Amino acid sequence: MTRLLNVKIPPQMIKTPIFDAEVQQFLCGRLWQFDDLPFLQDILRYHITQKFIAIMPGIQQGHKPFCRRCHNTKKQQFHHFTCERCKGSCLYCLQCLQLGRISCCTMLAKWCLAPPVSRHHPKMSWQGQLTAQQQQVSIDVLSSMMKGRNHLVHAVTGAGKTEILFPVIAQALIENWRICIATPRTDVVIELVPRIQQAFTTIEVQALYAGQKKSKKYAQIVIATTHQLYRFEEAFDLIIVDEVDAFPYSKDHYLQHAVNKSCSRVGRLLLLTATPTIQQIASFKKKAAYSFLSRRFHGVALPVPKIQPLWNYERKIRQNIIPKKLIIWIEKCLAIKAPFLLFFSSIDLMLAAEKRLSQQIPQIASVYADDPKRHEKVRKLRQKKYSGLLTTTILERGITIANLQVAVVGAEHAVFTTATLIQISGRVGRSKQFSIGEVVFFHHGITTKMTSCQRIIKKTNKMGYTV
Amino acid sequence: MKNCLLCDSKLKLTASWQQIIHGEKTKSICTNCRELFEKSQMPNSLYRYNEAMKKYLHQLKFLQDCRLTIVFAKELQQAIKRYEVDIIMPIPMHVKRLRQRTFAHVDELLKSANLPFEHLLEKTTTERQSDKNKQQRLQMENLFRLKPTVEIAGKRILIVDDLWTTGTTIQHATKILQQAQVKSVHYLTLIKG
């Protein structure tokens, strides 16, 4: 067994490798639990003896345990137990447990030969037009990609980030690269798949996220949640990470590591965000790999949030009273028949407000992260079956509804960081028809986060219009 | 700092003197997660099968997170103390299944509750109960056989299992034990489906 570990045979040494194309298609680029491979044992055994598949223990034990899948080395992130398979002490990784347990006696499999050759001719069926600024950014990105350099695109909310990707992906397909579009949010994956597939009809596009049906096919374009990249190793030549600043990716360095390790040795990263950190901007600017898209695709300025006091809102809502200013704001939205979103800092405060508000205003609902009907409720808001939604920060990004109006109740709360507030403000005025709208931050005491959000939006607006 | 085993939120660990003197274990899950479990009204089970319990069993049995056996240790210990029995017997797993799962979850539950137990039966089939409907379960041959060398005549026995769905497993085990002329058979399941 140990003889097989990490052995790579150069493909040219084997004259005519005869292997199962299905195994190759599935396993190429992946790092998969051997017991979970969807193939017959006999087929797999043949591939192992021919050294087409390398197998290795899931956890390498040395003076420090090392998880082969998530590269975790922290001792406290492993759990020791008595294993009936090893007949003794064994340990498993707690870091990537949710993807299926990796222990010392779990074997991981990896494809050692060349990837399958794509016979399809890449053709872009997307016919849209980029604005001059979008075009400039995509040229910058392409030049970075060709030099094998990572790149950061800073684009304001509603600037049309996905459109910039189309020429980049088209070029990457001509180069025969394998491409991954990764994002921390499942909602974004679901939204992106049909758009990308429509733009590149001849290419296999695969979606990967928790709970979806698994396909055995090899896809040249993979759209996945960042968590899924734990299961890949040196697989992609181009990884596009959308919403790099979104939770949990921004805080979780294991996830960031997973993205890096699934990138091939010559691969490059393209990061997209509306709210990069100062450090990110500085480090990418140094390498001249930073582009800024300061104007929305329709050319109208970003709505600047208004800051209004709403004193003692929390006490009032808990006492089952809705503050008058808030009622007036909601009625204004109802009068112009515009859908609205009310952001709350916590679920229980939101539910208390919903209880009282639903007596006064028909057709409202609330959503939060674990709400099973979340997608349905958002769809109903889009179809105007609801007049408004109460929400936590879960809807801060990735949602586009025409003529939306937004208010934050309790903007002074710690969950509303500057980035969150910018994202929330960016929900408004995203369509050509309704390019303006209202954003109000109701607060019980103003914070620097609110003012800095206002300042940043004003500054980008200015930049967008002097260029 | 310890985190909740189920939701990974930070736990506030303030051990009281009573806990320290009696050597009680510190918390393993947070109060929020604890509240989601529903106590059962039935005499022979501790909890009802609900969403939270489904998630718990998924993490324990499917994801094989054997840390979770500690969650109900105290409750199980208190419940089993009430029975006056000679032998505590967890429902066994088939050797093949055991190798697949790498640990016997019912045994581990009892171990973490600090209770002595003894295996009297062997499982004869590797088929999973959860793949069958009630009709199929009733028509099955006995799932167990007695281990060759055990002497249990005249003993009082408590059968322990994780989940009661139709009761077939417990029935089969009881039948075999009664054929071996034990004095009495009781049973306790952690969850009633």
UniProtKB/TrEMBL annotation, chain A:
SUPFAM superfamilies: P-loop containing nucleoside triphosphate hydrolases. Gene3D superfamilies: P-loop containing nucleotide triphosphate hydrolases. It comes from the Bacteria. Residues 322-467 form the Helicase C-terminal domain. One of its GO terms (molecular function) is DNA binding. Residues 142-294 form the Helicase ATP-binding domain. One of its GO terms (biological process) is double-strand break repair. Keywords: ATP-binding, DNA-binding, Helicase, Hydrolase, Nucleotide-binding. Pfam families: DEAD, Helicase_C. This is DNA/RNA helicase. It comes from Kurthia sibirica.
Automatic annotation (TrEMBL), chain B:
InterPro entries: ComF/GntX_DNA_util-trans, PRTase-like, PRTase_dom. SUPFAM superfamilies: PRTase-like. Keywords: Glycosyltransferase, Transferase. Residues 130-192 form the Phosphoribosyltransferase domain. One of its GO terms (molecular function) is glycosyltransferase activity. CDD domains: PRTases_typeI. The keyword Nucleotidyltransferase does not apply. Belongs to the ComF/GntX family. This is Amidophosphoribosyltransferase. It comes from Kurthia sibirica. The lineage of its organism: Bacteria, Bacillati, Bacillota, Bacilli, Bacillales.
